[in-house]
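[Archive record]
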Amino acid sequence: MRKALVVVTTVLLVAFVLQFVFAAVGAFTRPAGEGAYALHSVTGMAVIPVLILLTTLFAVLAKAPGRLIGLAILPLGLVVLQGLIAMLANASTDAAGTSTWVGLTVAGLHALNGIIAVHVVVGVHRAARKLARPVPADTAPVTVRQEVSA
């Protein structure tokens, strides 16, 4: 199970990297239509949440420490926050539908939150790799007896 945890965290990390690529595709698509961010939206609202849930499930099945299980589920909250930030940024336009400084500032928070989520996933991946390492046989605990003088 621990190796499966490493695999799923690797796939999750790749999905987050692709999420940034898909955001750039949407930003540089000309003319920018409704579908410019389709890959970004599908990945962020479907693929990544499923991978986060799988990561958490594998962490539980691998009998990972509670801290790692908590870190594994944390990106799900950050993804929910991403959606809320995106909605707020899109709602912060003027009457003509033009971006305002408030909307652009909130959109910047969307990117910042994405960076934080990636940082958390990198931490989960590192912890999963550490957990999956076999314990060397020569590091077995040794009991040392002390002589007590009377």
User: Anything to note?
Assistant: The mean pLDDT is 92. DSSP finds four helices and no strands in the chain.
